[in-house]
Amino acid sequence: TWSCNATAELKIISQKEGIDNITRKIQHIFYSKENDWGFSHFLGWNDILDPEKGHIKEDAIILEVWVSADAPHGVRSVIGCHLCAIDWRWDSKKHTGFVGLKNQGATCYMNSLLQTLFFTN
């Protein structure tokens, strides 16, 4: 089974003088049976929507997110690209509805970049 150690810092940026940013940090080892993990409660919705609390201004909030992940462990590499971490048994179309780029040597870097950009909006 694969695993990947990741850390993240999530912030709601204060938009009012004298009010601190709300910051939460996480560190977690993700693996095949636990690949979705995070906060069940970050900040109460009423606190976010209250202009006096300083987190919303003109119906907008500012989020700042930093994510760092180690290289995954326990996956099989595709021949031709020593940095590709693609398990040949994984059927991306079956699980996500999407198909990655065909690996043609060094295209795995572009595939990773495109998938990262797509899934982070």
TrEMBL record:
<dbReference type="InterPro" id="IPR018200">
    <property type="entry name" value="USP_CS"/>
</dbReference>
<dbReference type="GO" id="GO:0004843">
    <property type="term" value="F:cysteine-type deubiquitinase activity"/>
</dbReference>
<dbReference type="GO" id="GO:0016579">
    <property type="term" value="P:protein deubiquitination"/>
</dbReference>
<dbReference type="InterPro" id="IPR028889">
    <property type="entry name" value="USP"/>
</dbReference>
<dbReference type="InterPro" id="IPR008974">
    <property type="entry name" value="TRAF-like"/>
</dbReference>
<feature type="domain" description="USP">
    <location>
        <begin position="99"/>
        <end position="121"/>
    </location>
</feature>
<dbReference type="InterPro" id="IPR001394">
    <property type="entry name" value="Peptidase_C19_UCH"/>
</dbReference>
<feature type="domain" description="MATH">
    <location>
        <begin position="1"/>
        <end position="67"/>
    </location>
</feature>
<dbReference type="InterPro" id="IPR038765">
    <property type="entry name" value="Papain-like_cys_pep_sf"/>
</dbReference>
<dbReference type="InterPro" id="IPR002083">
    <property type="entry name" value="MATH/TRAF_dom"/>
</dbReference>
<dbReference type="Pfam" id="PF22486">
    <property type="entry name" value="MATH_2"/>
</dbReference>
<dbReference type="Pfam" id="PF00443">
    <property type="entry name" value="UCH"/>
</dbReference>
<protein>
    <recommendedName>
        <fullName>Ubiquitin carboxyl-terminal hydrolase 7</fullName>
    </recommendedName>
</protein>
